[in-house]
Amino acid sequence: MSYILAIESSCDDTSAAVINDFKICSNIIASQKVHEKYGGVVPEWASRAHQKNIIPVVDTAIKEAGITKKDLSAVAFTRGPGLLGSLLVGVSFAKSFSSALNLPLIDVNHLEAHILAHFIKDTPNQKTPSFPFLCLLVSGGNTQLIYVRSPYDMEIIGKTIDDAAGETFDKVAKILSLPYPGGPHIDKLAKQGDIKALKIAESHIPDYDYSFSGVKTSILYTLRDKLKENPKFMEENLNDICASVQHRVVTMLLKKMEKAAKDLKVKDIAIAGGVSANSYLREKLTELGQKNSWNVFIPQFQYTTDNAAMVAVAGYFKFLKKDFTTLDKTAYTR
Ligand code: KG4
What we know:
Blueprint: E1 3-8, E2 13-20, E3 23-31, H1 43-64, E4 72-80, H2 84-101, E5 105-109, H3 110-116, E6 133-138, E7 143-150, E8 153-159, H4 165-175, H5 183-190, H6 213-229, H7 233-236, H8 238-264, E9 268-272, H9 279-292, E10 295-297, H10 308-320
Parallel strand pairs: 1-4, 4-5, 6-9, 9-10
Antiparallel strand pairs: 1-2, 2-3, 6-7, 7-8
Helix pairs in contact: 1-2, 3-10, 4-6, 4-8, 5-8, 8-9
Bound molecules: 5'-O-[(R)-(carboxyoxy)(hydroxy)phosphoryl]adenosine.
């Protein structure tokens, strides 16, 4: 029985989790409301909040797992990528904690952790993807198509050349005066809207790469013209605008994913990251899987946004290989 403590502090969520084998015993997340009024994450506020939250969050995670510090076998932490000030809090804490208890230290890549969240086994019969599989990682900062050969061997085969999918939702939401983060609001409003109401430009980038900056520009120009005719256009057509934007982003994401999955002849496809909470993406991915007879893996909601449970499972894979790190390793932002 090996209990591993995991720490995540790469952006604006302070999180700690305990894993035993592939089962999550606790997963505590302290989100930071302070950023809402600024319409985006303020790095300095984020690192200050991490400092305040880290000790109570870790303490609660250990207690909720029903263990004590003495039961731990290792400490895993997100080393990067992320905001430097935020990462430093988690990295420094993990180093000090592991040194004090003489425990091995495991560094985890935040993006790999999002993907490996699919291997959390909350129930014994839970299905997990078979290797190799294709994962679409979609978050506020990243949009990547990743060919996953094993937990230790992943290749980025496509990525956005400008805005990430989540960033696109957040920027469009800002234009529409919706609160931050905008993705969940667009998702909710789009449910009542018509996906064909507005024509949103589709980018044509070679290979498996993406470009989403045109979506934001397309909305800006459309609104500029429509508002001239009807100053209330935005309020009166909010649901349709959200549905059209969401449809365009999701269609672009899945078009490349389908092509890549066919080219690589994979049978299992997955999504990960904050945008994988999007209901339309989930629905369309499921349809795509049915059409091609592929197995579809969609993370549980609690593992879509930043959380330490995913860091714990990624850490456990490294623990199994005794792939430990040393105190001289520092945080990396990219
Ligand atoms: O992975 P994540 O929690 O963190 C970072 O990238 O830092 O992703 C956050 C992103 C935000 O852009 C947010 O708007 C988006 O995920 N998001 C969604 C939904 N829930 C969160 N986007 C679309 N639909 C959602 N339901």
